[in-house]
Amino acid sequence: MNTLPLEVTSSRVQPHIDPVLHIWCWDVAAYLFLGGIAAGLLVIYAVHTLRKGNSSTFSWPLRFAPLIALSALSLGMAFLFLDLEYKTHVYRFYFTFRPTSPMSWGSWILIVTYPVGILMATGGWSEQQKRAAGARLGSGSIARLLDNTLAFSDRHRATILRLGIAVGCGLGLYTGLLLGTLSARLQWNTAMLGPLFLASGISTGIAFLLLFPLHNDERHELTRWDIAAIGVELTLIGLMLIGFLSGDEAARLAAWNLLGGPVTGEFWSLVIITGLAVPLFLEIVEMRRAGARAFMAPVLVLIGGIALRFILLHAGQATSYDALLSMVGH
Amino acid sequence: MPLPFYMHDAFSRPVGLVIATLIGCVFGFALERAGFGRATVLTDQFYGDNMRVFKVMFSAIVTAMLGVFVCSGLGILDLSLMRIPTTYLWPQIAGGFLLGVGFIVSGHCPGTAVVGASSGNIDAMVAFFGTVLGTYAFGGVFPWIQDFYNSGEMGILRLPTTFGISETLAVIAVVLMAIGGFFGAEWVEKKLAREDAPADPTNSGAAAPRNRVFGIWSLATAAGAVVLFSGFTFVSRPQAEPELPSISALDLATTLVADPTHYFLLDTRIPPAPPKQRIPGAMVLSAEDPDGAFLADLPPTRELLLYGGDDASTRTDLAERFEGTTLTLRGGYAAFRNEVIAPPEPPRAATPDALEAYRLRSALHAHFTGASAPAPTPMVKPVRVKRARKAEGGC
User: Fold this and answer.
1) Cβ distance of B352 and A19 shorter than 8 Å
2) E-assigned strands of A182-321?
3) Chain A residues touching B354 at Cβ < 8 A
4) What residue ranges do the domains of chain B occupy?
């Protein structure tokens, strides 16, 4: 008869937990990727608008960036919903707030993102755009609501945009911190994951926009930002590896995973070379040569972004202290 | 003999993947600069007014062949370690036909479709999507066409063995054929050139680049021939000395545990190694019978496994004496000692595969050495139970 305590059998000694975690699959990786894109789009739109001022002259992909961000986030949340074991219990996240729980923070950040994103999208319309929208909606309650929203957004434009930067950064950081706080998984036991996922989210957000027709000056500026974001991402990955290598046995195992271990080939070929180094090279060439256009760079950045999340999600679930102890014979 | 690097374990699989990615980037760049990302360049091949694809592909084939030829002749490339695909005649004809039809219809092959898509060509993106879709569909129908897929097997075919000629003659013939093909292609281009066709920069009539290419080929061929005729021999001639099938030390140990009478084990080292430095149960070649004449008397009910000190035994003469199947042990006794006799190192990666492999090696190590396997990981640590102190009094 099994005499193990219930806590042991329910939380540790079961095939879903040790030695390898099998709980988070493609849907969570896709959510982290889409959440990163949404965060990046919000930050880019807000910064670009604060710098340029008049958003009514933006090209349509950039003008609709907040709404595209909300769409990406909604799709990501649908994937997250698919992952839930007890789907009908999802409302419970919003009946409480636990400051020490990253999931609680994440749930509320996701909810806050929607009104902020809508207010960002409804600000800065030209009079012509407002008249066109008003003509379509007539004079009903929806039209009045739109009028009031447009007026509110215009009145508090700068504040809303700054709030958008904060929410976007929070969303991007949270996708990494969610993993980073689960320190029992060795690959995630680093504070670098939050900034890394934020930088990657900004880069993939820019790459997503670069897939669409933009004004030349917008394309030029976004490409310049993407080069910076990729540079930051490479630096953070380097720091993460240095942190792992200078840590204890568990940290060195996490480093070895990416420097000779099971996911090394995929990490370096898909993330570092294909997703970062090659697009960085292509974008630098595009910036330096007039008329050159790197069609493939944004596609490669997106491939690298999704590969980063898939690989780190998998590597984290495959590394645990329990497995480490069993290896050294304790 | 450092080539091929990968087959000599010069680097691991992850490093191989990284190198492959870098080579892929350079290859894609070269294809793009050759103009292979544009469907018009590729389809012009079939109209005959621009034979650039033919010239580039034939150049690549001949350059690679000459590289292999010279390196093998110099003794730095082991030809037997290079993978040559098996010929399956009918399915390969059908597959080639399908690829050709797709090539003409879309203007791209799978590789150039990726290159074209990278250049922003929408037709190439559609072709690439079609390739992915076709691959997926092939996976779906594979169970129904599996018999056809494996039909018409002809083994590994090479020009020298198929036509019964020497390596050198085959190489020279292919080079001459390439040069003839070049001139023939240019003749076809001139004959079929359309008046409205754009000028092909590779066919400007200038003989200098062509002469340089032919000159390099001729030099490489001459170098290979000189190397060959000056006493060097090809490192490996599979047709002259067929290799015996081989198994790994772990596979051997696993089989011996499951079925101790599966193999006749023969240690081919002369003089014989001491008993403690042999695989348990192995026979040796005695001084009275160094050629293993006794093997002819062994019943072919078991397989014969030959092994040397640190490599797979190449004594095919021993295999010829035995009636049954003969195999060799990769890495010889050294591999068996390192992988089975030596205590296994705990894996660095906490993956299920690594743990499973470690457990297998521990069990094999315990079986062949008598050592006890490492104790399984305790799942629950003992916890001291605090009993409540008895209250004073009572009965």
Assistant:
1) yes
2) none
3) 262
4) 6-229, 246-341
- Residue B347: list chain A partners with CB under 8 A: 327
Interface residue B358 vs chain A (CB under 8 A): yes
Q: How confident is the model at residue A41 (pLDDT cuts 50, 70, 90)?
A: very high
Nearest-neighbour CA in chain A from B4: distance (Å): 20
Q: Round to whole Å and give the CA distance between A65 and A202.
A: 12
Q: Which CATH superfamily is domain B246-341 in?
A: Rhodanese-like domain (3.40.250.10)
For residues A229 and A305, give the distance between their C-alpha atoms in angstroms, rounded to a whole number.
12
Contacts of B122 in chain A (CB under 8 A): none
Domains contained in chain A, CATH given: 6-328 (1.20.1630.10)
CA–CA separation, A52 vs A215, rounded Å?
A: 13
B45-70 residues labelled b (16+ CB within 10 A) or e (exposed): beeebbbbbbbbebeeebeebbebbb
Which of B17, B26, B31, B38 to mutate: most A Cβ within 10 Å?
Answer: B17
Q: What is the pLDDT of residues B134-169, one digit of tens each?
A: 999 999 999 999 999 988 888 888 888 888 888 888
DSSP string, B312-361: ----HHHHHH-SS-EEEETTHHHHHIIIIISPPPPPSS--HHHHHHHHHH
> A with B: how many residue pairs have Cβ under 8 Å apart?
85
- Looking at residues B304-327, what average pLDDT do you find? 78
- Chain B: residue whose CA lies nearest to A249: B348
Question: How far apart (Å, rounded) are the C-alpha atoms in residues A207 and A277?
Answer: 14
